[in-house]
Amino acid sequence: MSEQEASYDYQRYRQLLSEAVDEASRLRLISLLIAEKARDRLEVQRASDRDAMTAETVAKVLGTKGLGTKGLATKALGDGRREQFQRG
Questions:
Q1: Alpha carbon 72 to chain centroid distance?
Q2: What residues form DSSP beta bridges with 85?
Q3: Residue 51 to residues 24, 47, 48, 83: CA-CA distances in angstroms?
Q4: What phi, psi does 9 have (nearest 5°)?
Q5: Model confidence over 14-32: pLDDT tens digits?
Q6: Residues in Cβ contact with 15 at an 8 Å cutoff, skipping those fewer than 6 apart
Q7: Taking the CB of residue 38, how many other CB atoms lie within 10 A of it?
Q8: Is the Cβ–Cβ distance between 67 and 37 less than 8 Å?
Q9: Pairing verdict, β 82-86 and 72-76
Q10: Which residue intervals of the chain are DSSP H helices?
């Protein structure tokens, strides 16, 4: 089971599904599932952004101290992460 799947409360969703006896309550359940999935994806993206910013800051600090990161550059990847590569 992935980390994202582990965040779902299956028991709660089963209970809500069993209580969804009419179309209006089913639509509310669907909206809830969509909203919670979007929230989870946003949190994963934010965590990724924080990690990338931390890595970039560490690389800058190490680079200014002359600890062997000279010639390294950082590029942004399409999914919000950053990757270091050797210049030159």
A1: 26
A2: 73
A3: 41, 6, 5, 11
A4: -100, 85
A5: 898 899 999 999 999 889 8
A6: none
A7: 10
A8: no
A9: antiparallel
A10: 3-6, 10-19, 23-64
Cα 34 to Cα 15: distance, rounded to the nearest angstrom: 17
Show the tokens assigned to 29: 């359940």
Q: Which long-range contacts (CB under 8 A, 24 or more apart) does 65-73 make?
A: none
Comparing 13 with 53, the larger pLDDT belongs to: 53
- What pTM value is reported for the model? 0.42
| 3-class SS of residue 75 | strand
The residue behind tokens 């299956």 is 10
Distance (Å, whole) CA 74 – CA 67 = 16
50-68 pLDDT, tens digit each = 999 999 899 888 886 544 4
Matching residue, tokens 């209580």: 19
